């Protein structure tokens, strides 16, 4: 061996070759190893944008570069042709408006009333919303009251005239006395009939309607009976008369009637009634006028209730 290991084998060459190709220096790669030769005198090719750039970006909708988007024409018309030279038609109310609004109750009118049946003091459905009158209120009594009052005046005047003419004459004095006696039953008939008329007027109203303006409930018996209480009757004249008009007017209003009894006339008559002497000569005229006024309202109430 002589201390020698011999020459090393070729690292890459073929078997038995004693020569190896020279290695390229570091940093210089062979053109054959990295692809074709550089086109510009051996310089490394550039990997930036090509000369002149990439050009115009393509249209996002597929249209060729540099072209305008296609036109789709005017929007189609969804109604009749414009009547005024192509102007947009008006969408307001039609000529003449929309006509009358329909009834909120439909074709059959308002629904009927559902008040309790008539045997309980109420009207049947469809004829009103107020309780019906119990009686007709005895309307003929007003004629008896006015007739007896007029008879009292006539008899009293005749007796006074005869007594004045036949002063000192026994026969004339006797005739004047007869007329004076005749006036007494006429006066009593007038007073009693007026009280009966007041009773019947309050009795005409159902119990639920016998309420005055201040909430006082008045029965037919109270309306008449409290007039005989001394001093209290001065107040009760106003309650039984003005309260009657209030209760009667309330019943008429519930029926939708415009008819009303005069409360002012009732108050005026009550004022004259509490004044001494005036209550004998002037108050009866107002009371009779009050009765006829109330009878007019009572007649309307009886008609609406089917009592006329």
Concise synopsis of the structure shown:
This protein is mostly helical and 308 residues long. The chain has helices at 141-165, 170-204, 220-225, 232-254, 263-273, 278-281, 283-305. It is built from seven helices and no strands.
Notes on the protein architecture:
- With 308 residues, this protein is mostly helical.
- Helix content is 41%, strand content 0%.
- It is built from seven helices and no strands.
- Helix 1 runs antiparallel to helix 2 and helix 5 packs antiparallel against helix 7.
Order of helices and strands: HHHHHHH
Proportion of residues in β-strands: under 5%
Percentage of residues in helical conformation: 40-55%
Report, as a whole number of angstroms, the end-to-end distance: 165 Å
Sequence-ordered SSE layout with sheet pairings:
Blueprint: H1 141-165, H2 170-204, H3 220-225, H4 232-254, H5 263-273, H6 278-281, H7 283-305
List keywords for this structure.
mainly alpha; 308 residues; 7 helices
């Amino acid at each position: 061996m002589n201390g020698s290991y011999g020459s090393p084998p070729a690292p890459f060459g073929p078997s038995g070759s004693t020569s190896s190709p020279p290695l390229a220096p570091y940093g210089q790669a062979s053109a054959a190893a990295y692809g074709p030769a550089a086109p510009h005198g051996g310089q490394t090719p550039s990997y930036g944008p090509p000369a002149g750039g990439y050009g115009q970006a393509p249209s996002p909708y597929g249209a060729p570069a540099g072209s305008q988007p296609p036109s789709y024409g005017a929007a189609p018309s969804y109604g009749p042709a414009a009547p005024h030279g192509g102007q947009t038609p008006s969408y307001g109310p039609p000529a003449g408006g929309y006509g009358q609004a329909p009834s909120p109750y439909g074709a059959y009118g308002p629904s009927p009333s559902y008040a309790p049946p008539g045997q309980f003091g109420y009207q049947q459905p469809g004829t009103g919303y107020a309780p019906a009158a119990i009686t007709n209120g005895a309307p003929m009594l007003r004629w008896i009251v006015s007739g007896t009052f007029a008879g009292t005046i006539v008899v009293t005047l005749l007796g006074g005239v005869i007594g004045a003419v036949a002063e000192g004459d026994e026969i004339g004095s006797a005739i004047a006395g007869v007329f004076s006696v005749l006036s007494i039953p006429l006066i009593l008939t007038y007073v009693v009939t007026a009280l009966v008329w007041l009773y019947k007027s309050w009795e005409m109203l159902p119990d639920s309607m016998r309420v005055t303006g201040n909430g006082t409930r008045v029965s037919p018996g109270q309306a008449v009976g409290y007039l005989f209480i001394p001093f209290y009757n001065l107040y009760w004249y106003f309650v039984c008369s003005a309260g009657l008009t209030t209760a009667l007017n309330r019943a008429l209003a519930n029926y939708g009637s415009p008819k009303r009894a005069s409360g002012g006339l009732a108050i005026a008559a009550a004022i004259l009634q509490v004044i001494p002497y005036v209550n004998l000569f002037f108050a009866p005229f107002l009371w009779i006028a009050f009765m006829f006024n109330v009878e007019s309202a009572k007649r309307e109430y009886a008609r609406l209730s089917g009592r006329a």
